[in-house]
Amino acid sequence: MTPKPTQEMKLYCPLVIQAEQQIQEDDWDIPYDGDMEVIPSSCAVGLEDEINEAIEKYSEPKEEYRGLMVYYDEDSPVNEKVVSAFPSVEVRNGELVGVLTCQITEPLTDSEMAKFQDWWPGQASDGWAEGFEQREIKTDAFGTIYVSFWNPSDSWHIEAEMTDTTDTADIEEEESLDMGGISM
What we know:
Helices cover 26% and strands 32% of the residues. With 184 residues, the chain is of the alpha+beta class.
């Protein structure tokens, strides 16, 4: 059976990264006092691995193969075309940003893309990310941080990017096994 070729689609969004503020008093560290310090995304570039590890630990077993698509409307054509959708963070243009990396079997129509792009802010604000942003992440550089994929400001936006990820090696290997009427 030949696997359907897929394309990779990424939806990027800004992050809000906050650190528990430590107070210095006479060279003694006083624990968190309730104030949060916002870390600019350009300063958070070195936190990519630690945040992605926390995202992986936060994921549910049912998300293993399809990621957040397990929460998408089952009867939607979008759900048939988008095989998987996994959140992460990555460095883009010198800043740490949120990413929803999707594998799709065929391009989404304009209306399907609009519906999908309306769904992701819901996951980023009230769905998946609402629970994630409440989980503390211990870092070497900033101590305890919290990462939000959503903020209510006018600067929150989504950028989409498509990449062809067809795995031709697997398809060619499969085709070569069936050449000459001999199947292996």
